[in-house]
Amino acid sequence: MCAHYYINCTDAVCRSRGSTFAYTEDNHTSVLGMRELMPMVNPLCLSRNEAHEALDKMPPSSSDGNYCRSASCRNSLFAYPAQSNFSGTKYPLKWIETCRNGALDQYTGNRVKSRWYTVLDASAYVPTNHLDLGKYTPDFVAVSFYKMFGYPTGLGALLVHNKTGVPVLRRKKYFGGGTVEVVLARNRHHVFKKNVHEKFEDGTIDFLSVIAVGHGLDTLRALAGPMRAVAGRTFGLAAYLYGRMSGARHGNGSPMFRVYADTAYRCESTQGGVVNFNVLRANGEYVGYNEVKNVTDIYGIVLRVGCFCNPGACQSHLGHTDQELRRNQEVIGHVCGDHIDLIENRPTGSVRVSFGYQSSESDADTLYNTLVEQFWQNNPSKPVDRQQNTINEYSKMDLHVSRIFVYPIKSCGAYETDEWQLEPYGFQYDRNWAVVSNTGMCMTQMEEPKLCLVRPYMDLQKGTMTLVYAENKDEVPMVVSLDTKLSDTKKTGKICWGGSLEGIDCGDEVAEWLSWNLDRPGLRLIRCTSRKPPVHNKYGKLDPKVLGANQCQYLLTTKSTLKWLQHEMENDITEIGEDSLLFR
Length: 584
Hints:
Helix content is 27%, strand content 19%. It contains 17 helices and 25 strands. The strands form eight sheets. A six-stranded mixed β-sheet has the order 2-1-3-4-5-6. The protein has a four-stranded antiparallel β-sheet with strand order 9-10-14-11. A four-stranded antiparallel β-sheet has the order 19-25-24-23.
C-alpha cells in the first residue's frame, strides 16, 4: 500500500524536464521504483556518506522557509528513510529542512534552482520511535500499519502536509472510481472531488481493514506505552546483542559473526533496534542465511533473511559490484526471494534481528546462545578446494553403497535396486513422471500425503513400470509402459517453485487408477519429455525443467548418520529404526 502512495507523490510532484528525483542508496525497493515513472527527470542516488556531506550543514535559508519562489523553479523530490530497514541506522530528520532550503541543488547539475519536496519513509521508524511532526515537517510521510502492529497487511497511510504537500497533490492526473464528482465518457472532462483524501482513494477502499487500524493503534498504545521509552528499550537490546556478537570468537580466535552496521551502537538518536549479520565458520567461510533461519525456526526464533527489499544497502554492506549482481541474475539465475544464499562462498543476503516493544534481554540471550550452540567450532575445518577434490582422492576411502532408492514418480514411493544407470540429470528414470491435479499443478506430499503409498516397480527388460498402492495385494496393479511416443497427448504441469513441466499424458487408465486410490478426481500421470541436466554451466544455474528435488540430483546418507539420529531421537515416541526411506 505504501508503494501506491509513492506513485501518487511521483505523479504529482515531478513531471518536467530539469526536475530531480534524489534518493539515498539505503532505501526500500518501492522508492527505487519511483524513478521509472519519471523518464524525463534526473535521478540522483546518494550514498550514506554523500547524503551526510550534502545535508548535515544548513544552507542559507529564506525568511519564510520557501527557498525557491521563482516561477522558473522546477519541482524536485527527495526520498529517504527515517530509519534503515537493513541496518537500523537512523537518518537525521533535520535533513527535511536542509533539503527544502536547497542543500541538494549543487548536486543536480541544473542551472535553475529547484523547489524541493521531501518524502519521508517512516515505515521502519514509527513502530518503535516517536515521530514529532510538529518539529519536523516533511511534505509527505509514508507509514505501514502492518509494521506497527502486525495487522492488517497491505494497508498503510500517506500523511500529507497541508501547506506544502496538498497544493502539489492537486496535480494528480489518474482517477478511479469514487474519486471524481463527474466524468464524461465521450469527452475528456472530469472534476475531482474536493477533499484531498477522496481524490486519492481510487476504487473501493479496504474499509474492513481500516476499522482494524483504530483497534491496533489503541492496543499498541496500551501495551507498548510511550514510544520514546520503546525507542530506548529496543536500542538497548540491539546494542546489547551487538556487543555480544562483536566479541564472539570460535575456538581458534576467529570471529563468529560479521555484523553489518553503520554505527557503533552508542547513541539512540542514530541507531534503532536492529542487528544485521551473517554467521561465519571457524575457517572464515560464511554460513548461508537459510541454514541459520532453518536452525532458529526449530527453536521458535523468528528472523528475517535476504536483502529485505533494500537492494542498495544490501549491495553496499555485502560489497557486491553492479556487474556481479547482474551476473548472478543473468548467468547463475539468482533472483530476489529465492533459496540461493551463497555464491562462490559470498553471501547474497544476511540475517536481520528486529526488536519490538515486547522484546526482552532474555530473547537476545536465547538467540545468541542458540547461534553459538549450533555454529561455534573449536577446531576449524580446512576450506574446501573443490578443484582438488577429485574422484581419485575419494577412491582411496573404504566406502561402498549399501542401498539404492530411485523415485520414478515425483513425491511417490521408492523403488529399491542393487545397481542402476546414471545419467547427466541423476538416476535413470528418477522423477521422470509426475502426478498432475485437475488444476495443472504437479502434486507433492504436501498436498496429498497418500502419494507415498504409490510404489513403483521397474522392469527394464519388459520396459514397464508397475504401480502398486499401499502394498495391497488385493488391489489390481497398474502397468505403465516406459516407451514414450511423441504422438501421444502433450500436457503441461506447474511446479510449486515457479517452473513448468512439459510432458506426455500416460492415458486415461492410469489416470483413473490414481484418482480412485488417492480419492482425488481429475488426476493425470505425465512423463517429462524435455530432460536437461540441472547444471549446464560453470556457475551452476538451475534448469527449471528438472523434475528432481529442490536443489540436487542425489541425496546421500550413511549408516552412522542414521544411528546417530536414532540415538538423538531415542526418547521420541516414533521408532525410526535404520530406515533410509525416511530421507526421501
